[in-house]
Specification:
This is D-xylose 1-dehydrogenase. By secondary structure, the protein is α/β, with parallel strands linked by helices. It contains seven helices and ten strands. Strands 3-2-1-4-5-6-9-10 form an eight-stranded mixed sheet, sandwiched between helices.
């Protein structure tokens, strides 16, 4: 496993020994960095996703016995059963990180040129999936635990050519805030962490990179602090992590 990445804003390293965190989308560009960061801070991590080969490659690359992998499809009919089975073996969970997104197969197109099926597919992959994951994991997360979604800046701004992704980002932000208000301090805490541009292996392989962008392991450091209860943003549902140097910042709670 790689050495711990410590951002300059991380003044205290959270101790996650004895805690179990699920990272949905753990083999993705952002998810892998989160997985590595949580492991480096002592957590047992369950990386889930739809692609068994990518999960197996992650497991081999990380080489850490505290990493477990599980194939879970957020929109499959057996989601609840798979989550319940996982919880029976390894739960209740101290943290659940939702890091899923899909651009679809339709390419970048103006929104009103999408077919009904393309529209439905985008919403199922980016909005319904988050709703179903929240619903499935809430009952098996510890009352003192944390459930959060890693989202993108499209939650707050127009995204020409990718309206389905942007609309879903805005909707899941609203969904998270609503659930947090409904929970009202009872049971797991819900957070929405909106990210700036992230350096990923896929972008780097395509020759697209900028050292000013966020690293997945830096994002994982913030996730670890939320799970451990050491973050100064524990009372803030919507958080922004868009500037590498400034680190995570609180977002407005009301408009």
């Amino acid at each position: 496993m790689s050495a711990m990445v410590r951002p300059n804003w991380e003044h205290v390293v959270p101790d996650l020994a004895g805690k179990t965190v699920v990272v949905v989308g753990g083999s993705g560009g952002v998810g892998e960095g989160v997985v590595r960061s949580l492991l480096a801070r002592g957590s047992t991590v369950i990386a889930t996703g739809r692609d068994s080969e990518r999960l197996a490659a992650l497991e081999e690359s990380v080489g850490e016995e505290r990493l477990r992998i599980a194939v879970i499809d957020a929109n499959a009919s057996d989601l609840d059963a798979r989550v319940e089975s996982l919880a029976n073996e390894l739960g209740p969970f101290d943290g659940v990180v939702v890091a899923v997104a899909s651009w679809g197969d339709q390419g970048r197109r103006p929104v009103l040129t999408l077919t009904d099926e393309e529209w439905r597919s985008l919403l199922e992959a980016n909005l319904t999936s988050v709703f179903r994951l929240y619903r499935a994991f809430l009952p098996v997360t510890a009352e003192s635990g944390t459930i959060l979604q890693l989202n993108g800046m499209s939650a707050d701004m127009p995204f020409p050519g990718a309206a389905g992704v942007a609309l879903s980002a805005a909707a899941t932000k609203s969904l998270t805030r609503t659930i947090a208000a409904e929970q009202d301090g009872r049971g797991p805490r819900f957070y929405q962490v909106i990210l700036g541009v992230v350096r990923t292996k896929e972008r780097q392989r395509a020759g697209i990179d900028d050292t000013r962008w966020l690293d997945g392991e830096e994002i994982g450091a913030h996730v670890a602090a939320l799970v451990a209860g050491t973050s100064p943003l524990l009372a803030t549902t919507v958080q922004y992590f868009t500037d590498k140097k400034a680190g995570p910042q609180p977002g407005p709670e009301a408009f």
